[in-house]
Design a protein that fits this description.
Layout (H helix, E strand, L loop, with lengths): L1 H8 L5 H11 L4 H9 L1 H9 L4 H15 L5 H9 L2 E6 L6 E6 L2 H21 L7 H14 L13 E3 L1 H6 L7 E3 L7 H8 L27 H10 L15 E5 L20 E5 L6
Antiparallel strand pairs: 1-2, 3-4, 5-6
Helix pairs in contact: 2-5, 7-8
Length: about 280
Amino acid sequence: MPIFETTLSGGDVSTGHLDAVATATRSLDDDQRAAFADAAVDLAESAAAGESVEDFARRCRDLARRLQTDDGVAEFETQRKASRLRRRVDRDTGMYHFHLELDPVTGSTVSSAYLAQLASVRARHCDDDMAHERLAAMAMVELITGARAVDRRVPEVTVLIDLDTFMSGLHDHSVCETEEGVPVPPSTVQRLCCDADIGRAILNAKGELLDLGRSQRTANRAQRRALKAMYRTCGHPDCQVLFGDCQIHHVIWWERFGPTSTTSSRSAVATITWCTKAAGP
């Protein structure tokens, strides 16, 4: 794609943009890559106009998925087959090391269960001076061994998908991904819905109560689901910590009469998600 060579040499795009193109096209065949190259000029212009690497990568990924005749099913099956767990013991320290790789749906399921267990561990050790990494390890050990399993819960998996994609497959403006922005095939979402308890999160609509004014300090479940749909990462513009590792906080402090509301525009939203690195009161 010569257009990217030109824009890179001119300083208009970064190597991050080129990495996004390489990642998006790695699973395409020759004909699909040629079709992708036909759209390269528009992609390069957007990148040169200052589009962030994250937004550019999303557009590249969405274009590649539309070019795949199977809506990404083959890639998803490849991911499932590539799921693996590696375990080793460090002979010098005696510490065990585990490395787990999972497909997007299985990974989202495990992540949901882990985050729920981590919240429980944090609550029990809120007064202890313990590093996050140790709390995380305790949560995972409890989850695997069944320790303190008083309330056995089915993990909640959030998938963002628009109605047209769910009914008819991918289109130019499709959204079909996990809460962390990892794409999944529409057919996989349809399969999940066959035996799932389905909840809806509708922004700026009356389907669920998203504005509690000052009647409640903490965000309710509907608001958390809405924030999941709005944010993939921490609300701070320079922080890429994933949503699941963040805490919900008020933009206008509660002590200063800030409402617990997500009904405002994103620039003025009163309840926002922050990671612990950027968390405020």
